[in-house]
Amino acid sequence: MPDTPAPPAVGLRETVEKIRVLKHVPPTGFLRTHVFSLDHKVIGKQYLDLALVAVLTGMVLSWLMRFHLAYPDVAIPGLGRLAPTRAAGGVMTPELYLSLMTMHGTIMVFFVLTTAPFAGFGNFVLPIQVGAEDMAFPRFNMMSFWVTLVAFLVLLAAFFVPDGPPLSGWTAYAPLSAIGKDAGPGQGGGQTLWALSIAIFCVGQLLGALNFIATTLDLRARGMTFMRMPYSTWAWFITAVIGLIAFSVLLPACILLILDRVAGTSFFIPAGLVVSDRLQPHSGGSPLLWQHLFWFFGHPEVYIAILPGFGIISHILPVFARKPLLGPKVAVACMAAIAFLSYTVWGHHMFLSGMNPLSATLFSVPTLIITIPATIMVLLWIGTVYGGRLRLTTACLFCLGFISVFVSGGISGFFLAQPSIDTYLHGTYFVVGHFHFVMGVAAMFGIFAGTYFWFPKMYGRMMNETLGKIHFTLTLIGVYATFMPMHYLGLAGNVRRYSAFTDDYMKGSLPLHRFITAAALFTGAVQLIFLVNLVWSRLRGAKAPDNPWQATSLEWSVPSPPPFDNFGGKHPVVAHGPDEYGRTGPEGDFVMQAAPTAGGTA
Amino acid sequence: MCTKHVASIALLVLATSTIAAGPAPAPRAGGINGTVTFTGTPPKMLKIDMAKEPSCEKQHPTPVMTESVVTGPGSTLANVVVYVSAGDQPGPAPTETVRYDQKGCEYLPHVAVMHVGQPLEIYNDDQTSHNIHPLAKANPEWNKSQPAGSPPIKASYDKPEFIAVKCNVHPWMHGYFAVLGTAHFATTDGNGKFTIPDLPPGKYTLIAWHERFGTQTQEVTVGGSEAKADFVFKALPY
Amino acid sequence: MGKLFAVIVAVITAVSAGVFIARVWWLPPDISVLGAGIDHQLGETMIASGVLFVLSQLVLAVFVWQYADAGDGRAVKIFPGGATPMVVLATVLVGIEILVLTLVGTRVWAGIFLSPPDPNALHIDVQAEQFAYYFRYPGADGKFGVPHPELIDDGNGNFFGLDPANDTTARDDIVAASLVVPVNRPVLLTLHAKDVGHAFYVPELRVQQDFVPGLVIPLQFTATEVVKKEIVCTQLCGLGHFNMRAYLEVKPPDQFAQWLTEQAAQ
Asked: Nearest CB to C196: which of A183, A272, A403?
């Protein structure tokens, strides 16, 4: 080659970029721009809107459940008309309670905690954070949203079939879920629709995961080395890898369940079962097989729910502490370690399932070991707060709240990880308190933090900070009041998934249940403040500048909201890490990732 | 006497007897009654242990027994449904409601007999939830929960069938719905006796059904007075 | 706002921990030979976790209080030692705890599930169904009759599907709706489910085990007090799950023998 500066080697990435620049034209027409959009930003917002509808549905279901638990014999106004068979006179029947519980869990875990933090924020933010114009496969991306939406509608259809929604819990243990109508109310068409919905959901998430992985590996801007990627990108990337494996197992499991229900197969049903006075015609199956398949997915799934939160907190905390995250390499290593270990622990949901008791010890050890990287993350965050100059915006408050509630939820997990203690606490409200803290609270706080942080970028308007702070304060108190008492109930042996407490030794727990119900309804009502803020800000919020938080990552170097191709045809060149705060830069105490280095060279 | 006098007296007698007899009577209807007994050794009824439902257990100071074979003095059989299977005219379903109670975690009566289309009302008189599950084969099968204090379930069946009834929550609860195509039926009481009233004279086929010992058929002719039909079942200990 | 956050977190921590420490809601006293081991394990974990919980929440609260931006433009400080003390602290502290708890806990666990059945154990067959438990004692011949699922007839009290007409070992089987056991004698339960998954849980016995259809699962315990306690189902089994229970009655040996005789006479 002559003396002219060598052009970059024409590798795969350059070729891909060239083709994409040629093909990446702005969309035209209402449908293409706002409905069937290939733009990752629109798709991300669509996922977030879906998650919003889902979380409101799930929350209403939980109010009905909690009210029934506190006042089992009281008629709920309007319920009698909505469910004349299953709530004659407005008094919830046991099967209706369990159906609502099943749908609550399914909607929340799948359509809120997997969509919002991962597909919602990840879709919107990740391509911009790595410096790309869009995801690697925009058509797959659009398909993944619409497939997910179809899955949601199929699930909601279970409310309207004659037998009603399934009542086997979001865990759908066989043979209750596999036998069919004989197993009781709710186990007719509703269960089949449930399995179908989840199977469709898996397909959507697999498409999404492929996109995240390919985009992160192949479409990073020049200079965006792996260690310069923001922690949120790391988290989404690692989550996508987990998801690719986990959903690949859940999809066939759901198909096998459907076959058992409609095609007379016996994957999960052994011989000799007598249900509803009928000898079932199946033989040769194993209920434990369903548990293995489900939890092999199920445990990584809860890390899919929380890891994006880890990434979001690690990304946002430095912005508002005005200093870098303590231990960047350690943080990434911890997230990767948690992801890897998440595949080795699924049996801790099955300590008492009749598996060989030696396996309990085998599963307990990695479960306890996961505590170590999780503890390190918490300490890194607390160490980041140390010595900072905290700007206590709502997004920052939710990050700090995340640390508090994650500690609470993680610690109760420590008890359950030990088989000898799980012997007592399994199936009690202790478990319910534990997973609600880590998923229903911590993961939600991650979603809230992400919302308050990226809302300006998404919609070009600021959210109201006063409403935000009130929302945070009341929610923090409310969630502790709702879920901490559940640990006490669990210690007293209060069993979960009961529609009413009629056992002698549980009758005394009713006052505490009433307290929890009041706290839950209060916390639910507080979310109205968030909703009002969302809607009002979208319509009338103050116009947002490009970089309202003085943050450094690439999404803050583009307008709010960004143009359709994110960088306006330019290709950012990255010369800095993702959290260079606390050092003097041209705009203040931070240096943006795409800012040139001191020498002026890229 | 002259013809005129005879005619007047006859007319007078006729008029008087007509007035005395009241409005023109229908052809005199009879009925069928009888006793149902058994031969052989019936199976032993077992004590029902309601320990899992203390609110029901409390209601039974004396032990409750299973009810598939309920006998009376003199080897009589209770809970036998006797009905006309041929020979009578089909009629509209009676409108009075058949009441079925879940009380003390038992079904009362053990066998509820009703006409096709006749309204059935199922009450929960207990402090616990019940989930009644009639195991119908010819009719649609359904089950419904009734938490304590729920309104009664209103149902009816369109096809004749003997339907076993169980409670999904309390495995020992067991009963029957006998859905018949005739309004002429009766159930034997504690002394094994039954009466089917109001049958116009004619030849009828009677069936006696017992949940354990099967059915017995008999032809009966009803004249102007009560006809008798006894049934004898063969009992087996197992 | 930082101070408010700190105060809220501190108050929540104090109240939560206080309720745990005061044992306002706590485990019922145990009535099992294995109870002490489990309670000890739980107690140790509670102390270790409690300390970690209180410390981490309070440190967070203090840091937020102290490091909220006061508008004074002071420089930010990196945690002394960087990330290394965090890694070391977490690994060592948590690592040691894990080691200790696993070693001690495994011994407790093995006591429950990995011990060979006591030859003196009273063997009782347990069937869980929607929504009741039935218990079968082998009777005078010491043998259990063969259960036939196709013969099950709940309405007539044949819960296990026994065939006394043709199966002599089934004739003396005693079926009860309560689990009656003698005090201080090992009991071996064999658990099987008739229809769907269920579980057996007696909080006072510190014993819990799933019933898995298709499997027969052994469970051993020894009750140490004469009591009547509830057995409840902890595996979602359908609409009657909340109402699925039986009573465990622990009797003195002579009363147990008497009860057994009375049952056999029926």
From this structure: A183
